[in-house]
Amino acid sequence: MKNWKRLVALGMTAMMLASLVGCSTTTKTDPAATDGDKGSAKTEASGDGGSLEGTHVFMFKSTGNAFGDLMYEGFDEYLKAKGEKTAYKSPAETTVAAQVQMLDELITQKVASITISTNGDAGYDEVFKKAKEAGIPIVSIDSEANPEYRVCHVNQAEVLDIGSYLVQAGVLITLGVDYPGDGKMEETLKSELAKYSGDEIKLGVLSASIDTPVQNSWIAAMEDELSKDFYAGKVSPELDKKYGNDDLTESTTQAQAFIAENSVDCIISPTTVGIAAAGQALKSANSDIRLTGLGLPSEMQSFMPASADDDAFKSVCPYMMLWDVIHLGAVAGAAVDATLNADFDGSVGSSFKMDAFRDYGAETYEAYQSGEGTAVLAGTPFIFDKNNMSEWVDLL
Ligand code: RAM
Predict the structure, then answer these.
(1) Residues 6+ apart with CB under 8 A from 257
(2) Residue 284 sits in a domain of what CATH number?
(3) Does the C-beta of 251 come closer than 6 Å to ligand 1?
(4) Is residue 252 within 6 Å of ligand 1 at its C-beta?
(5) Which residue among 69, 215, 219 has the greatest number of ligand 1 atoms within 8 angstroms of its CB, and so is best to mutate?
(6) Is any atom of ligand 1 closer than 6 Å to the C-beta of 298?
(7) Contact residues for 197 (Cβ-Cβ < 8 A; gap 6+)
(8) Is the CB of 209 under 6 A from ligand 1?
(9) Which of 19, 174, 269, 361 lies at a 20 to 30 A Cα distance from 211?
């Protein structure tokens, strides 16, 4: 049985809890089936003759990111089981312009739907309007699309929760405190900080691009968390932010800059590319700076403890978090399917039923107001630490 470590503190509905409790058995997916695709640009069209007409397209921020590949794996698996065709289309460059150009081509090819993780807030309106006029629904995932043009956003986990957990983990790791257990982060943090009388703790952030909506929303939530009273005088409210553009080389350069400056105690990297690059840089430099953030267990195993007997603080990243990326992609597939084949329209209160998927039973998702638009909430973050890493490395 998989050791599901859930950050159950905030924002979880009873329905979500019930559904996750129902997920306690593990269908071991064959990692060999996906490993070859990790980190590579998988472009797959299950149509004939390369035509994308009638195909459900999944567009990530750029190619070469295993996080995007895994979301597509779930999206594809769900929709294929429904008899639909899918394709994975992402530009080589992590830019708005590159996505817009590709979107334009996809609309011309009469694709059935587009599910997208965007590279920025602005610059998509014209092409999204064109998609709308052509009757091609847009669903966003991971990084939001303009509410005016999307059916809904598929939210991985609550933004505020993620911001709080990342800061709490960064501070606890700086203080040498092991993961305290589900639902105990905040109380442990408060009692540890109350005892703390050392220098002001300074946190760094190694993010993706300076324009990426999702990372920027998490950074804003981290800043909100740091403004809470119990941090005052103990942890600097200022985050030292650097941007690696979800590129391994650029992220490594930025991690090396943190090492050279030596002014932060812990780097929080809210991107799987950034955290893996920072892990390697910190390990190679034998740095005292610690690391946490959002990472894929398969990419982080050399920088994290492997088993419960290990001293977590002998690794650069004692613990980190993420959500079930494959399931997230599948929820987007279900949203797309329900938009075209059922009566889901993304308005507040409109809902769709997702079929059972791998470990997850059938589930109903209801759209709720999220900013100017709506979203459905796919899940909750998991903590990966020395007690459960070995169970996850083959899966995510
Ligand atoms: C990266 C991407 C994505 C982010 C994850 C955690 O691969 O930048 O946007 O949500 O990591």
Answers:
(1) 242
(2) 3.40.50.2300
(3) no
(4) no
(5) 215
(6) no
(7) none
(8) no
(9) 174
In tens, the pLDDT along 253-277 reads 999 999 999 999 999 999 999 999 9
Q: Is residue 208 lining ligand 1, measured as CB closer than 6 Å?
A: yes
Contact call for residues 64 and 98 (beta carbons, < 8 A): no
247 lines ligand 1 (CB under 6 A): no
Q: Whose CA is nearest to atom 8 of ligand 1?
A: 271
Choose among 274, 93, 59: nearest CA to 166.
Answer: 274
Q: Count the domains in the chain.
A: 2
Outline where DSSP puts E strands in the chain. Answer: 56-59, 86-88, 113-116, 138-141, 153-155, 203-207, 240-243, 266-269, 290-293, 320-322, 351-354, 363-366, 368-370, 373-377, 382-384
173 alpha carbon – ligand 1 mean position (Å): 22
Domain assignment of residue 218, given as a range? 159-322
pTM flag (> 0.85): yes
As given in the structure block, the two tokens for residue 343 are: 């009566």
Tell me, yes or no, whether 89 and 42 share the same domain. yes
Query: Residues 174, 273: one domain?
Result: yes
Under DSSP, is residue 322 helix (H, G, I), strand (E, B) or coil? strand
From atom 4 of ligand 1, which residue's Cα is the shortest distance away?
Answer: 271
Query: Two tokens at 102?
Result: 């590709």
- The pLDDT of residue 380: 85
pLDDT digit string (tens) for 77-133?
999 999 999 999 999 999 999 999 999 999 999 999 999 999 999 999 999 999 999
Q: How far is the CA of 211 from the centre of ligand 1 (A)?
A: 13
Listed residue (233, 231, 306, 303) closest to 269, CA to CA:
303
